[in-house]
Amino acid sequence: MSPDRAPVGALFHRFRERLAAEGPQRRGGPPPHPARDAERVRRRERRSGGEQVNVPPAEFTSYYGRPVLKAPVWKWDIAAYLFTGGLAAGSSLLAAGGQLTGRPALRRAGRVTSLAAVTASAYFLVNDLGKPSRFHHMLRVAKLTSPMSVGTWILTVFGPAAGVAAIAEATPWLPERGPLGLGRRLLPPVGNAAGLVAAVTAPALATYTGVLLADTAVPSWHEAYPELPVIFAGSALASGAGVGLLAAPTAQAGPARRLAAAGAALELWGSHQVEHRLGLLSEPYATGTAGRLLRAGRALTVAGLAGALVGRRSRALSALSGGALLAAAVCTRFGIFKGGVASAKDPRYTVVPQRERANRRASEQD
Length: 366
Fold this sequence. Notes:
This protein is an all-alpha fold. Helices cover 73% and strands 0% of the residues. The chain is built from 14 helices and no strands. The protein has helices at 6-22, 34-47, 76-100, 104-129, 132-138, 147-167, 179-214, 219-222, 228-247, 254-276, 283-286, 288-310, 315-345, 348-365. Helix 3 (76-100) packs antiparallel against helix 13. Mean pLDDT is 83; it is low at 1-6 and 24-29.
């Protein structure tokens, strides 16, 4: 190597070292990123079987803490509508039982209560709709896949039948002669036929509201679709039994006691299921206002059933049992309503079950 070439080689070697030290910035590339480089190192370690880095699961938060779903705009009048509809159905079944077994006091109490309850139901429903004409507009279409449409037609059939049956109870007050005398002779058979029509329609009236709630996107209502119709059927039977225990003499209250036993069994089973079967979505039914209402409903149902079975000869105890069963039906309907509304307001009840379902589908595909 010639002497004049040595300084050139040294200069070239120093230039290469400087270029390597300046890195990609000298070559026009992106500046170094320590976090990104560390992530690349961790990835290489994972691929090579090195140490695994555990990342804690992220906690769910919605934008600004706002609900994912829009909570139902229904107010207390819809919860009252749920109760009065069930009361009308249960009372018509009670009246049919009194009619078929020759218990006039039971028949009369059931028919009058059924008419009063279905009238209140119509008021609550129209009050929620805002305009009476909207109910009429719903009758333009009969859609079997829509619980709301089916429920409208059920009310349309049940209401007039319950009304005719109740009017027939005024027969003894009509004169025996003249035009009203003709009504005195015709009303009893017409009322009996109308009472049976109302009783046949009553199971659909008692349960369609449960199907209606389960058909919404509200998490705790939608997930409880097998139980809600059962709960509402039991609540309707128990409330109808309460009317019979309150209004009829103990000698005629046998069908009411049997109705109370059947209704209490259905209601208690359904309430237990929605508070334990739904996992996270059972929480709204066990906490807060809904939890207190449902616990009170269960306690009143048990007390009312026990009083109905024990107080066969006590008029006062039968009346107290009837009042307890009616109060239990109110608590149960309002508790179910409140629980669903609470589940729609908390994003956790919407997102967590969705993620669980997605993970189950992914694991099944794998």
